[in-house]
Each structure stands twice: as structure tokens, then as C-alpha cells.
Amino acid sequence: MTKFTIQDFLKKKTERKKITMITAYDYPFARIVDEVGVDAILVGDSLGMVVQGLENTLPVTMDEMIYHTKMVTRAVQNAMVIGDMPFMSYQAGIEDAVRNAGRFLKEAGASAVKLEGGMEVAEHIRAMTRSDIPVMAHIGLTPQSIHRMGGYKVQGKTDESAKRLIEEASIVEDAGAFSVLLEAIPMELAKKITETLTIPTIGIGAGPYCDGQVLVLHDVIGLFERFVPKFVKKYANLKEEALKAIKKYKDEVENGMFPSEEHSFK
Ligand code: KIV
């Protein structure tokens, strides 16, 4: 198998095949995800919440994103690794955006970056793309805008906001994004955007009509329970499994069952 590329992203849309994407933040999980054969791995700034235990994603730094992205690229052989640009790594200016996006490719071995925003980051996307940095845009619910949005709310529910999202999707496509992530928007709106664009849409809480789907790994495997959005499907409960295993270990140490001869040297 060869590495999944941005050309493969576009090809899948043309062939009407679904693109699969999930987040990962470290070596062991990136290995598992890659072994499954997902097309792309997002090293999302959601790591602030699901790994670092933060309230939201805003405090996550560029250095932390590079640290986690390096662990992921070290593990991955086939999936495309996309680094997520954290809050304030691009908002202050285009030069910042290009420099920080470049770090994901140069220092961490990612193949592309993602950034949140539509119209307001079009020039950033243009400059990054001109510098040979493939960019995935992210519109709809953008968690870095939590304070402006007043919480994690479904976007594009009014005619006016839906129209604006359709326009923004076209603007980021024109600016050079190779794909656009649609978060928490009505499924019919996601369908319309997907049909309008030539680049693939990747949905999270955007219904079944997107060209691909992404979810946060820790939600999928049951390792994050602080809040579970409606769009999350939990496929396993690893927390339960981990609790059982660690409790058994503790009990066996306490009652002298571990280590046995089998786990000791003669
Ligand atoms: O940071 C993240 O994990 C994201 C999700 C929308 C997938 O951006």
C-alpha cells in the first residue's frame, strides 16, 4: 500500500467512494488506526480536551501540536497525516500561518494541515497553498470560535447562515483548499455544499451526504466521557476494559498472585 495523497482525496470524490478519517495523537493509537487502513489521520487540536484534559482547545500550542504530530507520523505508513493548526497559530497574520503550517510538514512529517475559518482565512489558505502546503479548511462549528459562537452549537440553521456557509465553502475552495471539513451543520446543507464543490467535504455532525467522515478517536473507542455530542457514535468502551485490567493487576499484586513463577527469572 502507498501513502494516501491529496490526489486520492479528489479521486475518491470523483469515484463516489467515501473518505475515512479519524483523529490520533500518539504512536500506539496511530499504529492501530493506520493498520485498519483509514485514509487520513487528523492530529486534531481536540487533543487539548481528550488528552490534556483542558476545558477547550484554545490553550493548545504549536509546539504541542508538533510534538503529537511527530508521534503520529512515526507510526503511520499509509494514511495521510494532517496537522491541525491551533488557536493563534494563524489568526494574527498570513506570515504566521505559512510559517506555522510549514512546521507541520518540515518538523513533524505531516502531509497537510487543517485550519478553522472561511472567508477570513481565504488569503491564508492562498498563501499556504502557494507555498506547497496542502490545506483542509474547516467551517460550520469551529471550536476555536467558542467564545464568539457562545458554545458548541449547530451552525447554518437559518437561511442566512446557511447561505453564508455555502459561500464560505466556495471561497475556501477557490483559495486552494484540497478539502473542507463541515462540522455540526444540518445534513441537507452539507449535501448542498457537497454537491456544489469539486473538492471533497469531510463531515463531523454533518450527516451522511458528505464525501467522507471524521470522528474524534477517543469518542469512538469510549475514552472521553466529559460530554458526548449527538453526532458521536461510540463503537467500544475502552475505559471499561482498562478499568477491568488495571483493577485485576492491582488485586493480583495485593493478594500475591502476581508475579507468579511464569513472570519471574530463575
Ligand atoms: O480537532 C479536531 O479533532 C477536529 C475535529 C473536528 C475532528 O477538528
Ligands present: 3-methyl-2-oxobutanoic acid
Report the major sheet. 8 strands, parallel, barrel
Structural class: alpha/beta
Our count of domains comes out at 2
Strand order of the largest sheet: 1-2-3-4-5-6-7-8
Give the CATH level 1 class of the largest domain. Alpha Beta
What name goes with the CATH superfamily of the largest domain? Phosphoenolpyruvate-binding domains
What is the helical fraction, as a range of percent?
40-55%
Poorly predicted sequence stretches spanning 5 or more consecutive residues:
none
**Overall pLDDT confidence:** 97
**Number of helical regions:** 11
Annotated CATH topology of the largest domain: TIM Barrel
- Give the H and E element order: HEHEHHEHEHEHHEHEEHH
Number of strands: 8
Supply Rg.
20 Å
CATH-defined architecture of the largest domain: Alpha-Beta Barrel
Beta-strand proportion:
5-15%
Straight-line N-to-C gap: 45 Å
Note the overall shape. globular
Tell me what the structure shows.
This protein is α/β, with parallel strands linked by helices and 266 residues long. It folds into 2 domains: 6-235, Phosphoenolpyruvate-binding domains (TIM Barrel), CATH 3.20.20; 237-266, no CATH class. The chain is 42% helix and 14% strand. The chain has an 8-stranded parallel barrel, surrounded by 7 helices. The longest helix has 17 residues, at 159-175. The chain is globular, with a radius of gyration of 20 Å. The termini are far apart. It binds 3-methyl-2-oxobutanoic acid. The site of 3-methyl-2-oxobutanoic acid (KIV) has 10 residues, from loops.
Task: Give a quick precis of the structure.
The chain has 266 residues and is α/β, with parallel strands linked by helices. It has 11 helices and 8 strands. The chain folds into 2 domains: 6-235, Alpha-Beta Barrel (TIM Barrel); 237-266, no CATH class.
